């Protein structure tokens, strides 16, 4: 047996906080060594924080990383531990995103990332250079390139994040060249439903290439990207370890690397494929002999037996029901995003929310409170200030709902009427217009802008983080006010569809029993900027709106294709009415792009959202003839 204890770390970094990030890695490495971990795996770009984006173009940003990597090596020199750490370097004018192999007080090698994602939320292709098969260079006297590393426990094959997502990644040639333990350093953002995809991909790669895979992922939030952490160990297709998500720390498990080699001898497909690769002149990856650098401590390790003490019977099923998993993942991700933005910017003292008594501001409050409960369990409400700013159209029902939820959560609550300001601003606007009359939409927008201005004034004076509360569905069709409810310092649910907002609130009402949630849900959704406003009456039913958004913005369907899809999805709705909804959505969607670009930074929880810098990049000025049916 060749027993190896692998530690998988999730580290919450801040971009550019080189020393603090390295201190976090050091603390975890020391804990690993104290528990006889053989190999410690840390996330991608853990020294600098991720994503650094264009900061890597500053030489000073790159130069600050190497001394911290050397410090890490020096301070772990006495530990019987091999560590794989994410770092960026500059090599002959090119920036490389690398996995650094550290042991015995030295940086033993650097393996650069080969597959650079430049899609969705990623921009690595415009800032980093690609590692190459057969690359063999030197950086600061350290081997840099396509290498394997031989230790006293086995052969390690480092790689970085996207390398595992390509079937043509480096894992194939490295496994054929003798790599047994593939170590993948990742900073993979949270995306709805992506956990299972990630889990199964790693199982597939481990099985295809007959290797043991150790995968570590970043945790925490930088700007709008949320990293859910979690990691895996998978041996030749068998799951060994899944680490906790949404929390910093590490988990460990023991594997027998002799089992990986034995399974290779049994797998004729893998052997034949390798023989073909060798015969066709496949490029063999060189192995650096590191056996003399560090002597790992493995004599105390025990054989990895199932916790339920059976090799044949299934382990107890600890999976959460699908509804619980979806809701808890979204809530945990958004609370982490809110909290890290609040803490890492170091600019704010508390949260501020304009609480309308409606669904969106309620969910935003509950997310902020979820974070506050973690950091101030004795009095979470003290970290939040809620304001209710009624106009002539505000109902007693929404005021009561807002007061109730604030009281239940222990959140300070103030009522600050905008009625007088509304009348003054209407008069001033009318004066500017002369003989022209104020439009009804202008009167609605005046109310929203007064509220936003007051929230900004409060924020400026007390260091409050003004949370924007709008949802993705209404944002997509411009059902929001520039300078008003579109404004804020951080958009918490701007990438959460309205149907998901309501689904989450139903779940929270069931699980918490809060009366304030029940009161909010009892009233039809509407902005209360005019008499008897109901959002679905002014737009369309929210399930249809969200379907239109997904089909057009996500699946890139034309209006005629959308009508076909919606007819299948909503057979109970008249086809003519559906066609009208499609036409209305498409018109509003493209007319509203100019609004999206003025929206605040938003938190990302999926592959589809309206943050122009991250996901859906659309020109503001464009013709619409191509949208008409041929």
What is the topological layout?
Blueprint: E1 3-10, H1 18-34, E2 39-41, H2 59-63, H3 65-75, E3 82-91, E4 94-103, E5 106-112, E6 136-139, E7 142-145, E8 148-151, E9 154-160, H4 171-176, E10 181-186, H5 194-209, E11 212-217, E12 219-222, E13 225-228, E14 231-235, E15 238-242, E16 249-256, H6 257-266, H7 268-279, E17 287-289, H8 322-345, E18 350-354, H9 359-375, E19 384-388, H10 396-409, E20 413-415, H11 419-433, H12 440-462, E21 464-468, H13 472-476, E22 490-491, H14 498-512, H15 515-521, H16 535-538, H17 542-554, H18 559-569, H19 575-591, H20 593-596
Parallel strand pairs: 1-2, 2-3, 8-17, 9-10, 10-11, 18-19, 18-21, 19-20, 21-22
Antiparallel strand pairs: 1-16, 3-4, 4-5, 6-7, 8-9, 11-14, 12-13, 14-15
Helix pairs in contact: 1-3, 8-9, 10-15, 11-12, 14-15, 17-18, 17-19, 18-19
Domain CN hydrolase: 4-257
Binding site for ATP: 354-361, 469
GO molecular function: NAD+ synthase activity
Please summarize what this structure is.
This is Glutamine-dependent NAD(+) synthetase. With 630 residues, the protein is an alpha/beta fold.
Helix content: 25-40%
So what's the overall shape? elongated
Q: Radius of gyration, Cα only, in angstroms?
A: 27 Å
Mean pLDDT over all positions: 95
Instruction: Give the strand tally.
Output: 22
Q: Strands of the largest sheet, in order across it?
A: 15-14-11-10-9-8-17
> Which class of secondary structure composition applies to the elements?
alpha/beta
C-alpha termini separation: 68 Å
SS summary, helix count: 20
Low-confidence stretches: none
> Main beta sheet: strand number and arrangement?
7 strands, mixed
What portion of the residues fall into strands of 2 or more residues?
Answer: 15-25%
């Amino acid at each position: 047996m060749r027993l190896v204890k692998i530690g998988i770390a999730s580290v919450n970094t801040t971009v550019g906080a080189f020393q603090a990030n390295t201190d976090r890695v050091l603390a975890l490495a020391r804990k690993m060594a104290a528990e006889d971990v053989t190999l410690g795996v840390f996330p991608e770009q853990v020294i600098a924080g991720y994503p650094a984006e264009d900061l890597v173009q500053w030489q000073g940003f790159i130069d600050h990383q190497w001394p911290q990597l050397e410090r890490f090596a020096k301070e772990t020199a006495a530990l019987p531990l091999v560590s794989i750490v994410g770092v960026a370097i500059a090599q002959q004018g090119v920036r490389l995103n690398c996995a650094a192999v550290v042991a015995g007080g030295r940086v033993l090698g650097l393996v650069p990332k080969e597959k650079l994602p430049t899609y969705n939320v990623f921009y690595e292709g415009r800032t980093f250079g690609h590692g190459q098969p057969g690359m063999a260079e030197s950086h600061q006297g350290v081997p840099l390139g396509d290498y394997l590393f031989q230790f006293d426990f086995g052969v390690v094959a480092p790689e970085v994040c996207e390398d595992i997502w390509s079937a043509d990644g480096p894992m194939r040639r490295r496994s054929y060249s003798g790599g047994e333990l593939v170590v993948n350093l990742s900073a993979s953002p949270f995306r709805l439903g992506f956990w299972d995809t990630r889990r199964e991909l790693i199982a597939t790669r481990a099985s295809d290439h007959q290797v043991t895979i150790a995968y570590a992922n970043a945790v925490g939030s930088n700007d709008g990207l949320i990293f859910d952490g979690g990691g895996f160990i998978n041996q030749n297709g068998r799951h060994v370890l899944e680490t906790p998500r949404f929390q910093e720390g590490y988990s460990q498990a023991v594997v027998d690397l002799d089992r990986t080699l034995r399974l290779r001898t049994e797998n004729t497909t893998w052997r034949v494929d390798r023989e073909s690769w060798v015969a066709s002149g496949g490029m063999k990856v060189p192995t650096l002999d590191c056996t003399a650098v560090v002597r790992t401590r493995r004599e105390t390790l025990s054989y990895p037996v199932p916790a339920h003490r059976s090799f044949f019977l299934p382990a107890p099923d600890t999976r959460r029901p699908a509804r619980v998993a979806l809701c808890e993942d979204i809530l945990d991700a958004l609370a982490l995003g809110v909290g890290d933005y609040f803490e890492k910017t170091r600019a704010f003292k508390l949260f501020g929310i304009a609480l309308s008594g409606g669904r969106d501001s309620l969910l935003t409050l509950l997310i902020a409170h979820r974070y506050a409960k973690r950091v101030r369990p004795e009095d979470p409400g003290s970290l939040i200030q809620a304001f209710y700013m009624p106009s002539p159209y505000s109902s007693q029902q929404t005021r009561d709902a807002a007061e109730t939820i604030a009281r239940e959560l222990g959140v300070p609550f103030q009522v600050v009427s905008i009625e007088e300001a509304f009348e003054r601003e209407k008069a001033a606007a009318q004066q500017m217009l002369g003989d022209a009359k104020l439009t009804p939409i202008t009167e609605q927008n005046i109310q929203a802008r007064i509220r936003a201005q007051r929230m900004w004034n409060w924020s400026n004076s007390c260091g409050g983080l003004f949370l924007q509360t709008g949802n993705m569905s209404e944002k997509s069709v411009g059902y929001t006010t520039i300078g008003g409810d579109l404004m804020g310092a951080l958009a918490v649910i701007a990438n959460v569809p309205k149907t998901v907002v309501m689904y989450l609130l139903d779940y929270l009402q069931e699980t918490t029993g809060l009366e304030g949630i029940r009161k909010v849900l009892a009233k039809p959704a509407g902005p209360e900027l005019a008499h008897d406003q109901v959002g679905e009456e002014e737009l369309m039913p929210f399930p249809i709106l969200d379907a239109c958004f997904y089909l057009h913005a996500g699946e890139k369907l034309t209006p005629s294709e959308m009508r076909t899809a919606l007819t299948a999805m909503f057979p109970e709705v008249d086809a003519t009415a559906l066609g009208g909804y499609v036409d209305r959505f498409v018109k509003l969607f493209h007319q509203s792009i100019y609004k999206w670009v003025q929206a605040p930074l938003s938190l990302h929880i999926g592959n589809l959202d309206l943050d122009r810098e991250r996901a859906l990049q659309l020109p503001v000025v464009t013709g619409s003839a191509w949208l008409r049916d041929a």
